[in-house]
Amino acid sequence: MKRFDVLISGGGMVGLPLGLALAQGGLKTVIADAAPPAKMLDPGFDGRVSALAYASVRMLTALGVWERLAPDAQPIREILVSDGQAGKPASPFSLHFDAQEVGAEALGYIAENRHIRAALYQAVVSCPNLELMAPAAVKSLTVEGAGAVARLDTGEEISATLAVAADGRESMLRSQMGIQIIGWSYPQTGIVATVEHERPHNGVAYEHFLPSGPFAILPMTGNRSSLVWTEAKAKAPALLALDEAGFNDELARRFGNHLGKTRSAGPRWSYPLSFHLAREFVRPRFALAGDCAHGIHPIAGQGLNLGLKDAAALAEVLLDAGRLGRDIGALDTLKRYERWRRFDSFALAASTDALNRLFSNDIAPLRHLRDLGLGIVDSIGPARRFFMRHAGGDIGKLPRLMKGEAA
Ligand SMILES: Cc1cc2nc3c(=O)[nH]c(=O)nc-3n(C[C@H](O)[C@H](O)[C@H](O)COP(=O)(O)OP(=O)(O)OC[C@H]3O[C@@H](n4cnc5c(N)ncnc54)[C@H](O)[C@@H]3O)c2cc1C
Q: What's the pTM value of the predicted model, to 2 decimals?
């Protein structure tokens, strides 16, 4: 049986950087993922882009991943937030964030998920101390006194001092370990599509709050943008089934004409939207990270950033414990990670949930209240800068990797 310090189940956008951080810090690590890497890099696998906060970019830089990803990432220079209704002009009250105001090159970056995965894979395969097994699904986990033993669908068994589940929202290991979640589904579907437009976007991202949910236009490289269109669950199938011309018409009603003529490029994707938070993040010799531990509404584009912060914090706790000669799988070591990350995850999950409830409706008094709120925040410099720091992930206790230092 192969033996490692840490086994990570799930080589997604959280499991891969966690593996890199641990291996670079000297822990012998293995990542097992159910899907073949070639499938996950295929443009047909995941149509999403991710907004990477600058704290996440500092982490990817420290891990040696950013230099591979930067050519495919679009800087976000400005963000415009407004309230409105489809087919009508936006409310005059809006919120404007500008990177120049905080002396930064960008407020964050937009990168296609397939490019993030490709950059992570390249770094993983050239990292000593780190093994990637894929396709290889973890079928079960047994925790014994000094270690955890995982059985893979390839028939192999792996033993490790600690097992980490980074296997996504429907985590099999979280269920197998009997860890409960609190959560609910939103009556909304996330429609994702890439659009091409006549005029350049100049790095401006738009968050337009419509009654059925937020409609985000995220700048991609070239004259392209990614739409994250939150629509009422009941209406989404009809929109997804529209022919090209019909879909482009619906798009134009919401998108406006500030970027000239627009047309969808490539397939449309839909994602069910839900909220969940695990009641526990750790057990002896077992920890959760990423979407396995929490799932939030994409309204603020923070799900991956939250997962990257888990990876950075967990790596720091484990490497510190290892350097002091402590047991990295012991519950008191892992509790430090849980205390660090569970409250932060809850706070962000709860605020994105509240934001979605406040904005995804057409109730007149609420509309006036939120317009007033947008106008007030926009007129107060320190409030604007607070929200920019928040979006950049520069809040709370930052792990060393997110400060750009080695883990
Ligand atoms: C519409 C939409 C838009 C979003 N936009 C943003 C954004 O702009 N910014 C942002 O920060 N976040 C965004 N998010 C959230 C972000 O995509 C997720 O938080 C992130 O992908 C979570 O990564 P993960 O690695 O935890 O999980 P996943 O990406 O789900 O990866 C889990 C991995 O585990 C593997 N796996 C599953 N079961 C097993 C098993 N038994 N054994 C081994 N491997 C297994 C899978 O193959 C997969 O590779 C968005 C989400 C949605 C739905």
A: 0.94
